[in-house]
Amino acid sequence: MRSWIRSHRWESLLALILIATIVGNTIMAPVYLGVGNIVNLFWLSIEKIIVAVAMAFVIINGEIDLSVASVMGFSAAVLATLHENAVVPFGIAIIIALVVAALAGLIQGLAVTKLGIPSLVVTLAGLIGFRGAARVLLEDGSVGDFPEWFDRLGQRTLVGPLPFGLILFLVLLALGWFVLERTAFGRKVYVTGNNPAVAKYSGINVEWLKLRLLVMSAVVAGVAGILFAARLGSVRGSLAEFYELDIITMVLLGGVSIFGGSGSMLGVALAMFTVLNIRNGMGLANVDGIIQTGVVGTLLIGSALVPNVIQRFRVRFPTVGRYEPDAAEP
Amino acid sequence: MSTSSRRRLRPDRIKELSLFGLIALSVVVFGSVVEGYLSGRFFNRVTTSVVVVVILAVAQSLVIVSRNIDLSVGSIVGVSAYLTADFLQSNAGANPVLAVVIAMAVGAALGAFNGAIVAYGGVPAIIVTLGTLALFRTLVSLYSGGANVTADVLPDWVIELNASTLVSAGGFDLRTTFLVAIGVVVVFQWVLARMRWGRRLYAIGSNPDAAAQAGIPARRLILLSYIGTGSLAGLAGFMFMVRVGTISATAGSGLELESVAAAVVGGVSILGGAGTILGAFLGALLIDTLRLSLVRVPQVSEFWRDAVLGILVLLAVIADSLLSRRLSGRVVDVSAVESATSSTATAVKGAADA
Amino acid sequence: MGELVPVLEMEDISKRFGATRALQDVALQLYPGEVHALVGENGAGKSTLIKIVTGIHSPDTGKMLMAGGEYSPRDPAEAQRQGVAAIYQEPSIFPDLSVAENIFIGHQGRGVLVDHRQMEREAVEVLARLDIELDPALPAGLLSVAGQQAVEIAKAMSLDAKVLIMDEPTAALSAHEVSRLFRQVERLKELGVALLFISHRLGEVFEISDRVSVFRDGHHISTRPTAEVTEESLIREMVGRDPADFFVRNPHPQGEVVLAVSDLGRRGVFDGISFEVRSGEVLGMAGLVGAGRTDVALALFGIAPAESGSIVIDGAEVVISSPRDALRNGIAYLSEDRRRLGLSLPQSITTNVTLATLPRYTSGLGVVDRAAERRDTAAIRERLGILAASLDTPVELLSGGNQQKTMLGRWLNAEPRVLILDEPTRGIDVGAKAEVHRFIDELARAGMAIIMISSDLPEVLAMSDRIAVMREGSLRGIRDRVDADQESVMALAVGVG
């Protein structure tokens, strides 16, 4: 147990913070720990946490996808537009919306792998462009009136207290953890994020890996966007605007390094829960949404700043509380 | 042998000329398609709407050349616009210059916060400024308590400033605000091209390790550049207030993306070390010209604004990467002043030269 | 010629890093207008000495004097101000800035404004003093490695450097560029600069230096005029043993042809490459830097595939268009750039060792069989003698030597039919070289076909069964070991006769 804590320092610290937030919230509102409330907690932000699972892969791989929220909005807009104009049956419309999301990921992925443009820039363009595309489709208005089964799927529980979206999230989380920790694919994601050259020289097809991840990220965003449409019952051009902040915060707070090559799905899961708790707690205390976002922003900075400060502390006081491994030669 | 005679076209000049060409091209194309396009009215529209983004593009370039970024400029605009407007609401008789100073000071303070964490906290700029984008917006929200500052409570000179013209010729007006923007461009183009401080920012972006080895005080310079960016964003906030009048807590939201887009389209490489302020200016101008022109074409709705922007950024970045790839393919070898060599040296030289 | 007053003196310099004593009681003098070579194995203390002189570290004991006055720089910038400059194997320049700006960028006291035209004029002057001609407005990133190095030297000159340290400056240069570099060195000598020249290439040491110092295990062993030493005496002092003790490879029977390459070509890089390698054979590949040997290796390994010709493994023609293809066909490649291409540092030994063979441990669903992984990694650890707390230890915590073994382990685990080693002993001290050579021999004995690319002629001659010599992208000849000697191989490599 102790050695696990030692090698998973970040996750352990996060667990402590999480417990603190739960305790704090429960003191504020004793119903907090009820099943209904916990489910609600996740459900209200289900789209964010679904995308965060995919984002974890992307960032561990050493890339970043700033366009996820815009792709969410765009694919939801495609669905809504197809539905509004009754072009195809609704089920087909969903498929088309997902295909569009995949194409969005493909375009960005190709720009990164074939043209060598940094993912930061490509997905920044995507952030702007796909949001714009959503606005072109929906302009200022909103589209709703979806089939009943769709609304039901998004707004009612499916199995026990769990709505479809939450079940989907749990499946994705478990799947994500498994792939990352136990499969060769996950191994490749880590190594390529840490040192793409070594990966290439070991027979890993780095380009194909990055392309797949960026497409996957966009598809997951597409799924989340459609889920959002079901949950809200209607779609606007501004759907999921600025969500990328929360999503990236969850991943980085979860201990994933922005430089790639390290981090764990467990940490990301803990971070998700923590962020949701904080937002929920602030909501209970009637704190404004914008201020909640500000707190999340502070969390983001803190999650990157604190390890650096600790590192610097370590350099100046190397022996304080440190476990001595085999010494490396200078 | 004189080397200045074979002055080849530097990459920066190529980019600036292409941008200028593109602007000219779009004017020509749209001029032939759209009724009444080549009029003073359109010119005035572009020059007034572009002011805020131009100043922000300059601000953004300051940090991008050193391999950083500032995603919080939109929020800084919001904070400074709101605080300045609020100040004027309570002090109607205040000197306009004081208002500008306040706006820039607020921006500088926020920029310093960014710069301190980036430079001394070792946190990547994208993370810090993504966080302060939210944090600064929170500050406005807290301060405003949800209330807007409406245009009618602002002093008259604010409204007048928006419309004031310094030079006018046949319907083509040079508004004061536009000239201020031009002034900012000129000053900072000069700063980055001719001041040692500016050249060192390029060095930091071009090779951070070599910069450290050369004794360049990178952290201090980066902090200063963020303060500069913040101040300019504050100035942009002032301009925003002048142009828009009614300031809400969400003022300036989204401008950060436009500023990055303008800089990137203008040839300021996101990897640092390259690009010019003039390029960023042209980038902002090109984007705005295209957007306002497209809107004039009846088939295109105004909601194409952002989509066009995204496409432009992507195209600009692709062009930039292709350009740098073609350039790096031409590896230039050192030519030596020929001196007498031994026969072995000639043999070796003959062998290794292809 | 050397004057009697040293420009830089070091007395009783010692430095420890934790338990390691990097330098002990070192004394050294550098004289103006003289090239002072520094040789020694890895770990002898050379780079620690450079770091102390350039201000990156400060010594634990002793002191340094510059022209009589105390010299104790706090950082490289201060060392530069005091006239000490260094250039390294990989040039450190600003690619986006012009040549002129690169030369003058760090300078103090030049005012707030930059006058580009004036700077370019001065740049041309400084370069001319070194017999170099470059367009001062050119972005430095467009220059070749040699060109960038020239800019670095010019930068040092513009700072009125009195001491210039050159750490393995020729490693990335072609022979032509090396001789040009040496011309620049001559000019620097004429200008009275004191030069400290560190190199593993003893041939260059004899060509360019006036005096040579030997370091071993952190001690300064000797300093003598170059004219008074021989290669054997230097090696003996560097190693402390007789060079005749080194590993000598004895030939042994070889098997069938494993790899047959026919008319392999890649436009603009190499063409008409044909050779065979048998099981149990070591085929040495000799040639000058830039001859195309690594390119052929990268073609065989799929990183930069060939455009024409054929590759035949065990009698069957194969197409290799990616490293995966290569590995699947039994070809493995140990790159010469071990620092950058070697290991994924935060990952465990197991992960690094199995990295190239993941398909072997992966079931249909993609799940990794961890037990099998550990089994194989443990076997590799045993075979190579990797010292570590456990197989899960992150590789970054291992010592340099163990890291290298882990890297080799990755390729051994792939059980290749053909192993291509690119400069396997570059940058390794003489003692460890013997160990590597012994291991290569073992591998050959076990039936592996080995291609060994090396620029170290004695090594090539000692280790290879046959020697292929490349020059300018084509194969100039393949000689049997008994028929080859240094002169004939060099002649083929250089193209004389």
Report on the structure:
The complex is a heterotrimer of chains A (330), B (354) and C (497). Chain A has a two-stranded antiparallel ribbon with strand order 1-4. Chain A is mainly α and 330 residues long. Helix content of chain A is 73%, strand content 3%. Chain A contains 15 helices and 4 strands. In chain A, a hairpin with a 2-residue loop joins strand 2 (157-159) and strand 3 (162-163). Chain A has a single domain, classed as ABC transporter involved in vitamin B12 uptake, BtuC. Chain A has helices at residues 2-7, 9-28, 35-43, 46-60, 68-84, 90-113, 119-138, 148-155, 164-182, 184-194, 196-201, 206-232, 243-253, 265-284, 289-316, and strands at 142-144, 157-159, 162-163, 234-236. In chain A, helix 2 (9-28) runs parallel beside helix 14 (265-284), helix 8 packs across helix 12 (206-232) and helix 13 (243-253) runs parallel beside helix 15. With 354 residues, chain B is mostly helical. Chain B has one domain: ABC transporter involved in vitamin B12 uptake, BtuC, CATH 1.10.3470. Chain C is of the alpha/beta class and 497 residues long. Chain C folds into 2 domains: 8-241, 3-Layer(aba) Sandwich (Rossmann fold); 257-494, Rossmann fold. Helix content of chain C is 34%, strand content 25%. Chain C contains 18 helices and 21 strands. Chain C has helices at 46-53, 76-81, 99-104, 116-129, 145-158, 175-190, 202-208, 231-239, 293-301, 323-328, 338-341, 349-354, 358-361, 370-384, 400-413, 430-445, 457-463, 486-494, and strands at 8-17, 20-30, 35-40, 61-66, 69-70, 84-87, 132-133, 163-167, 194-198, 211-216, 219-225, 257-266, 270-278, 282-286, 308-313, 316-318, 331-334, 418-422, 449-453, 466-471, 474-480. In chain C, the strands form 4 sheets. Chain C has a 6-stranded mixed β-sheet with strand order 6-8-9-3-10-11, sandwiched between helices. In chain C, strands 17-18-19-14-20-21 form a 6-stranded mixed β-sheet, with helices on both faces. In chain C, a hairpin with a 2-residue loop joins strand 20 and strand 21. In chain C, helix 14 (370-384) packs across helix 15. The model of chain C has no long low-confidence stretch (mean pLDDT 85). Classes of the chains: A mainly alpha (330), B mainly alpha (354), C alpha/beta (497). Chains B and C meet through helix 9, helix 10, strand 3 and helix 15 of B and helix 2, helix 4, strand 7, helix 5 and helix 6 of C.
